[in-house]
Design goal:
By secondary structure, the chain is of the alpha/beta class. The chain is 44% helix and 13% strand. Strands 3-2-1-4-5 form a 5-stranded parallel beta sheet, sandwiched between helices. Strand 2, helix 6 and strand 3 form a beta-alpha-beta unit.
Amino acid sequence: MLNTAISQSVLQMHRRSDTLLYCNSWRLSVETNNGGYWETIPSQCYNFAEKYMTGEHYLSDSQVSASDSLAFAHSVNFTGHEKDVWVFDIDETLLSSIPLYQARGFGSEPLEALALEVSTDIDLFDLPALSASLEFYNELLEMNFTIVLLTGRTEDLRNGTDENLLKVGYTNWERLILRNSTDEVKTAIEYKSEKRQELVDEGYIIHGSSGDQWSDLLGYAVAKRSFKLPNPMYYIA
């Protein structure tokens, strides 16, 4: 009986090890966009996702992304005409939706594109800042970058979004761009590319861009360097 119990214990350990290995590989696949479109986290990875998002790994990945971004920012040659721009997404880039994930089972339910606005159980305008992003954001202000916030949130969320950002320490952005009624049918890549092009047409130089989705960063009128923040929780095309 003892040998049987030990064998079962060893088997369970192997299974846990295999699951952890698979979930780490799955996360690499979606972060690098190899996985393409996906709706939910694999069922065996729910616990993995929760531990990743609430533990030190997510914080470390975010800090490394911010560090790489800052290193590039220090290499920028400024025009000197307040046209040197860094573009930020908001959700999972400046603000964290971990409270929403906790309410939605950390990936066990589909998270639609910006499901934030349809949630009734979470205060959408009381989300915490991502600490690494806030520090990087303030470093950019000290370096005299012009900050533009470009989000998939809709125009009716402007006041609450503005107040939330200010409350957690984000200040002095040049522009907060949200989707209006004519943008509703556009994909994220289409919408964000158009808005970046408008900035370029106004004479702004987009040196850097930060976002948690590839659709924040790809398309046209892209930044000279784009930086992907970690987010294995959902995918926006």
